[in-house]
Specification:
The complex is a heterodimer of chains A (256) and B (361).
Chain A (H helix, E strand, L loop, with lengths): L3 E10 L2 E11 L4 E5 L6 H8 L7 E6 L2 E2 L5 H7 L1 E3 L12 H8 L8 H6 L2 H20 L15 H13 L5 E5 L7 H18 L2 E5 L3 H7 L2 E6 L2 E6 L1 H6 L1 H8 L6
Parallel strand pairs in A: 3-8, 3-9, 6-7, 7-8
Antiparallel strand pairs in A: 1-2, 1-4, 4-5, 9-10
Chain B lengths: L1 H32 L5 H27 L6 H17 L7 H27 L6 H18 L2 E5 L2 E5 L13 E5 L13 H19 L2 H11 L1 H6 L4 H24 L12 H14 L4 H17 L7 H17 L1 H30 L1
Antiparallel strand pairs in B: 1-2, 1-3
Helix pairs in contact in B: 1-6, 1-11, 1-13, 2-6, 2-9, 2-10, 2-11, 3-4, 3-5, 3-9, 4-9, 7-9, 10-11
Classes of the chains: A alpha/beta (256), B mainly alpha (361).
Chain lengths: 256, 361
């Protein structure tokens, strides 16, 4: 049984079928890509996987448990974390606090412990600070721990968002267009980061991406969506040679 | 290194807040000893304490949770009436200390219950519904309390929303609450130090809460509720936590305020008061506790100081409001303040770090 098993997943908003018959199977430690032109339904698929939307058909099984229609809170606890296409950080909070919020359901103590500053509070806070600092160091932004999240440059904000997602100890990490708005150098660096995350943390990663070089260079398995339907599936080689994908997605004027 | 800086930053808020309150207390006590405190000024002390508590607690909702509440005075009112009603009836036979402690607890509890009643349905929604509902709640509570008659005789309590004769009591019955006249004959209890103690407890609660897991969840919801949800934060739970805590503190403030006067009427806790408290929070800088304290003191004392200028009073008041707003928000002023803070800090960096270390250790 794969870590994430998606069977015939679909959602319609009123009369609009945004995603239809999506099948995916992601093993532990896999790097999986979900690609497709704008409006193909990739982010919608993400939103169903993370419980933001309730699918109208199909089944999502994660780690042997049916999580279809469960809310984001449940799914986050189950071990799926995500980043967003338009970075969503807690801008007024410090970089360190952003990561600590990520541990919300992993390192816990009650409100009363916090207000009364019990021993449990002190121990757990120390544990959080150490863990968060270590995560930030892995991504090379440890020296920015005290900055407000909004003060970081764009590339580092992306990294911080990944840090925050990893802070919840996920088994599966969903990255929504991680390379959006990055120059080729930053993209290259990000590729290494993503691979490193997979290797160091031993988790599965599912990513949505526009940048074909990025996806082809990093993913082991790819599903291509168009108008909510799956038009191709397989390893990068197969997908990039698929005539339907070339016609629908890569187009005639693509430099590849 | 980075960790050390973080600690000193949080500690700085603690330090400034407590130094402000301690300084306020010390200054007043000193003036009291020297005999320079006029009776009029003395009468202002407890209201100032209550407003400081109100401003800090509203900051929890407006500054930290990022929701707009326009009926904070209603929670103060709920606390005041519940606490004083108890104090005047059941508490009358008790030793004063016990009666007062219980009055505070009951006032806080009553306000908290109203906080849950208002919060549970509204905070499940996202959007500006809280402002509308709290505004309505404030008016409803004010009008109900304003026409509520309560009497007691040997058969128990009697309630009426009409007048005191429709209570249908035995001739020996006693009217406890008289509609628009409210509750009268309160044995006054106004000890400035108790007010300061309550402020200190409020500060400790709010600052500790905000620097903990729950507080981070609350600020995370303010900054980005979608991201907060994706991390597994239960939005309704933490919104309610902030809102109800804020209501309970307002309830305490209400009891403190009410015990300072011989009579208590519902009209005092109107829309204007809610807005005044909101102004304190906004002027003090949303999310800034020391700012809220300063704004609460200035905005309570200022109108009283200006009574001598009768006709120019509101004029000067509004000019001061505008100046404070500029000082807090205008980019040029903000930059000037940051430069000053930097200068101040680089000069005192050594000693401040030591202080912060002591505080934590």
């Amino acid at each position: 049984m794969a870590l994430l098993e998606v069977k015939n997943l679909g959602i319609s908003f009123g009369g609009l079928q945004a995603v239809q018959g999506l099948n995916m199977s992601i093993e532990s430690g896999h790097l999986y890509g979900l690609i497709g032109p704008n409006g193909a339904g990739k982010t919608t698929a993400f939103n169903m996987l993370t419980g933001m939307y309730t699918p109208t058909e199909g089944i999502i099984t994660f780690d042997g448990v049916n999580i279809t229609g469960k809310g984001p809170e449940y799914i986050s606890k189950a071990g799926i974390a995500r980043t967003f296409q338009n970075i969503r950080l807690f801008n007024a909070m410090s970089v360190l606090d952003n990561v600590k919020v990520g541990m919300h359901n992993r390192v816990t103590y009650s409100m009363l412990d916090g207000v009364l500053r019990t021993k449990k509070y002190r121990n757990k806070e120390a544990e959080m600070n150490e863990k968060a600092q270590r995560l930030l160091d892995v991504f090379g932004i440890g020296d920015k721990a005290d900055y407000a999240a909004s003060q970081l440059p764009y590339g580092q904000q992306r990294k911080l968002e990944i840090c925050r997602a990893l802070a919840s100890d996920p088994k599966l990490l969903l990255l929504d267009e991680p390379a959006a708005g990055m120059n080729p150098n930053e993209t290259q660096e990000l590729m290494e980061t993503v691979r490193k995350v997979r290797d160091d943390f031993g988790i599965a990663i599912l990513l949505i991406e526009h940048d074909m070089k990025f996806v082809m260079g990093i993913c082991e398995e790819i599903t291509v969506l168009e108008y909510g339907k799956t038009i191709a599936h397989g390893d990068p080689q197969t997908v990039s040679n698929d005539p339907e994908v070339i016609a629908a997605y890569l187009g005639g004027d693509d430099e590849d | 290194m980075a960790k050390q800086k973080k600690i000193s930053k949080a500690a700085r808020t603690y330090l400034t807040s407590f130094i402000l309150v301690g300084g306020f207390w010390g200054a007043i006590e000193a003036v009291k000893l020297s005999g320079g405190l006029s009776s009029k000024a003395a009468g202002l002390l407890i209201p100032v304490c209550a407003y400081i508590m109100m401003a800090i607690s509203l900051n929890l909702v407006v500054g930290f949770l990022g929701e707009l509440s326009l009926g904070h005075a209603a929670f103060m009112s709920a606390g005041a009436f519940a606490g004083v009603f108890f104090y005047n009836t059941a508490g009358a036979g008790m030793p004063e200390g016990a009666a007062i402690v219980l009055a505070f607890l009951i006032g806080g509890l009553a306000a908290g219950i109203f906080g849950v009643i208002v919060g549970v349905p509204v905070l499940r929604l996202s959007g500006d519904y809280l402002a509308i509902v709290t505004l309505a709640f404030g008016e409803i509570l004010k009008n109900v309390l304003n026409s509520l008659y309560i009497g007691a005789d040997s058969a128990g309590l009697h309630f009426s929303l009409k007048d005191q004769f429709s209570l249908n009591m035995e001739p020996t019955g006693k009217v406890l609450m008289k509609g628009a006249m409210g509750i009268t004959g309160i044995r006054k209890f106004s000890v400035f130090s108790v007010g300061i103690l309550l402020i200190a407890l409020t500060l400790l609660f709010v600052l500790n809460l905000m620097n903990s897991r729950a507080g981070r969840a609350i600020t995370a919801i303010r900054d980005d509720d979608i991201a907060a949800r994706s991390i597994g934060i239960n939005l309704t739970k933490y919104k309610l936590m902030a809102f109800v805590s804020s209501a309970v503190i307002a309830g305490f403030a209400g009891v403190l305020y009410a015990l300072n006067f011989a009579s208590l009427v519902a009209k005092k806790f109107d829309y204007n008061l809610s807005i005044n408290i909101l102004v304190m929070v906004v002027l003090g800088g949303m999310g800034s506790i020391p700012g809220a304290i300063i704004a609460a003191v200035v905005l309570t004392v200022l109108p009283e100081l200006l009574r001598g200028f009768s006709q120019y009073r509101m004029f000067i008041y509004s000019i001061v409001l505008i100046i404070m707003m500029l000082f807090n928000r205008a980019p040029a002023f903000v930059m000037w303040r940051q430069r000053m803070a930097l200068k101040f800090r680089s000069g005192k960096a050594g000693s401040e770090k030591e202080d912060a270390g002591k505080k934590k250790g």
